[in-house]
Specification:
Oligomer: single chain
CATH topology: Outer membrane phospholipase (ompla), Chain C
Order of helices and strands: HEEEEEEHEEEHEEEEE
Strand order of the largest sheet: 2-3-4-5-6-7-8-10-11-12-13-14
Number of strands: 14
Helix content: under 10%
Radius of gyration: 21 Å
CATH class: Mainly Beta
Strand content: over 45%
CATH architecture: Beta Barrel
Structural class: mainly beta
Largest sheet: 12 strands, antiparallel, barrel
CATH superfamily: Phospholipase A1
Length: 329
Amino acid sequence: MKKVIFFVLLLVYSISTLKGQDSEHYFFRDAPILKPFLSEIRSTAMKAELARLNKLDENYYLSEYANRPFVEVHLGTELPVYYLVNRQTGIKFSTCGYVGNILLIDMFEKTTSPVINTDYFFGLKSAAIKYMDHTRIRNLGLKLVPIFHESTHLGDEFSIHGYHGLSGFRRINVSYEAWEIAAVLNDPDTIQSNLFSAKVGMQGLWNAAQGYYSTDSLETKGVTAPLSKKNYEYYIQLNWQRTKGLLCSERWMNVLSVEASNRLKFSYDEAVEEQRSWNFNLYFGWKYISEKSGRHVGFFFRYYAGIMPNGQFRDTGGFRYAGLSVVYH
């Protein structure tokens, strides 16, 4: 795998050195290429969602949570470094950093409205696309994330109550560094017409022996958890946008975005074997195209099915999430 990443780095470096009178070089300017699809779980798009959950971790201390909606907030941004456009060859290339946060809150619980979990992530990204002279294949793209870090944290009230009130409670420290590579067909870029896009990718840990998580004996009452072993994930994403046709327009773009990811369902018990799980994340709705700002506001229905994607709860399968989402990106 290291040889593959070295080859990709060499490729993107050669792209970045393109010369010619048609080349345009920008520093610290946002590049529109290879942005996360709407359905991507680890996304830098800003979202506010009101949703119903069918289950939570068995240690959650508040009852009847299935009878009230939860709030999930996504915050994120890209930190642009370099952007190249070569119109003669039809190549675009960018490098940037990015940072994001996903916060799950039991907002409508009447006593304390506790934070359930917070996920943080940040990394570096290089992206390149090549435009094609073809009616259906508009461009081909490659994304490389040489390193990103994710860490997750239970809410304080959840942790304190679990530690003092539940004999089997453990706090698992999900924290790891990984790489990611993906290939894209028909990246939306700035295209605002009907377009079908697809992305396939995979990620792996830099330190496979360490796994995705660790434990502190003070937080687990002396009970350890086995390290994770299956340290690769892969996914396919499909994105269909329409500005022409039924129930859409040049200003109100209809979007259907789906991610199918094969991820590891964690196991914190030696007697329970790790499993891989297919997980599905779907968004359907409309976004308003703002020509002036380049930022768009959208209104979507979201449905997720699979393992719970939040923090140490990734050992919980059969999770369902259905809600309404307001997206700004």
